[in-house]
Every structure is written in C-alpha cells, then in structure tokens.
Amino acid sequence: MEPLIIDGKRISKEIKDELKEKVADYKKKGIEITLAVIQIGDDPASTVYVRNKKKACEYIGINSKSFELPGDTSEKELLELLERLNNDSSINGILVQLPVPDYIDPLKVINTISPSKDVDGFSPYSVGCLNLGEKGFLSCTPAGIVELLKRSDIEIDGKHCVIMGRSNIVGKPMASLMLNNNATVTITHSHTRNLKEICKTADILIVALGQKEFVTSEYVKEGAVVIDVGIHRDENNKLSGDVLYDDVAPHCSAITPVPGGVGPMTIAMLMYNCVEAVEI
Ligand code: NDP
Questions:
Q1: Residue 120 appears among annotated catalytic residues
Q2: What CATH number is given to the structural domain containing 236?
C-alpha cells in the first residue's frame, strides 16, 4: 500500500492563511502584532532562518523588527537589549536566533526573555506550562508535528509513540505534547538498549536524532506513521532527513518527506505563537 505522504508545505500554508485572517481582524480593531528578531553575527544558516521568519511575518501581516547585532556583541549588551524589549509594550514576541556565539550563555538568554514574549517556547516557564498541561507557548517544531498529525487525520489518542532523541527543543517537549494528547510515550536516546526493537513497537515514530538517514525499515513496524525531524544538507545543497526515506516509506501508513514535511511547520507555529502573544 502506498503511504500517505504528509504534506507539510500545504499544511503550513493552511495555518499561515488562517493566521493571516486573524491578524487582519486584529488590525481592524487597531491591534498590531510585532515580533523582534535578534541575530548576532552573520552565520549563513542563521541568516536564511531569520530571512524566512521575516518573510512569514510579512505574509501574515505581523510586523518584524530586526536587530542585526555584530558578531562581537557582549552577553551584557544582548541581555540589556532583551530587557528593553521586555519593557516595550509595542513588542509582542522576542526571538533570538540560536545558536548564539560561544561566549554567550544561551540559557541566560532564554531566561531573560519575558515568559509573555517567549514565542519560541523555550523558557523554563513555557516548558513548565507544557509539562503541567497548562496553556502557554509551545515549542514550535513539536507543536508543528502535532498539527501535521491532526490535520492528516492521524489519531494520537491511545497510540504508542516512540520519540528518538531527547533534546530540549525537540525530543522532550515532543514527549510532553504527545502525552498531553493521550499517547503512550517512550523516549529513546544514545544510551537506549535494544533501540531497533523499541522503535519497532511504535505506532507513531518521531525521529529527531541529527544522524543522516539513520532509521531504516528495520526500525519500523509495518503500517507505522513516521515523522522525520532531521535536516541534513549535502555539498550540492540537497536536503535529507534522519530517515532513509526510500527504504522506510513502503512500510508506513504515513510519512513526512524531507524537505516539505516537518521543516515548514516550525515557522508556521512560530507565527501561531506570535498571534497568541496578543492574548497574553
Ligand atoms: P540534538 O543533537 O540536540 O539531539 C539529538 C538526540 O538524538 C539526543 O538526545 C541524542 O541522545 C540522540 N541520538 C543521537 N544519536 C543517537 C543514536 N545513534 N542512537 C540513539 N539516540 C541518538 O538534536 P536536535 O533535537 O536539536 O535535532 C535533531 C534533528 O532535527 C537535527 O537533524 C536538526 O537539524 C533537526 N531539527 C529540525 C527542525 C525542523 O524545523 N525541522 C528543528 C530542530 C531540529 P543523547 O541525548 O543521549 O546524546
């Protein structure tokens, strides 16, 4: 049977179009939404991410205010800017493009952003809300994956979800979100024993390893749903994921491609959080 190829491009566009309407309604009431986007240095990958985020803002009707700081900006200067933005009532959301230079502590940065403007959902407050099942900003990539599943009519309730990876930005918040959606959740990592056997018990396998094409059909139960979070770019700029797609796809009921699967959802959910920020 041919698997359903989950179309992240289409679904992310659907979400952005819904948000565009919402933002237009806010504008009619005189409410503007503004996202502050901070980049330190000129790392090419970060520049592309920042550009795409600003483009999405423009599409939806959210104002973006750019802060392109030199590569030698001190931690103190960055934290002072964040404090100013926290206290600026015209700014609804604050985003610091990660990674920051080595001499800046990313945790300090995340902790300084006001929880009410934490549109990346990385702050301890946002993570705490997620773990308690309370309303708060959701980490964008995991939230995007739940949207992909729901909008593809894939049931989560009661399913066994195995998450490969336990990072703070994908694996852990993903586990909390799937748990909040009534999945039975297993998290695996580099110390996990019998990895293949565990993965083979998954109804939904979410792969966030950062290891190119690591997951083969040997890890996948017949008819499972496979979500590939990984992004790898080769010397010819060709993208691939953590899943060996051609080997795995024939065994799945549904699968996300790379590119065009999870990738586009992260920015769509960032935009969702920016719109939510108005209500907070
Ligand atoms: P991290 O490197 O922070 O985490 C990787 C996780 O995978 C760790 O928990 C690690 O275990 C585990 N792991 C690595 N190798 C193995 C292995 N051989 N066996 C079992 N577990 C293993 O990565 P991220 O979570 O930040 O990102 C994962 C991937 O997703 C990357 O390719 C990244 O580029 C991509 N990504 C894509 C996004 C998108 O928008 N589509 C957004 C964010 C990330 P341990 O903890 O024990 O070290």
A1: yes
A2: 3.40.50.720
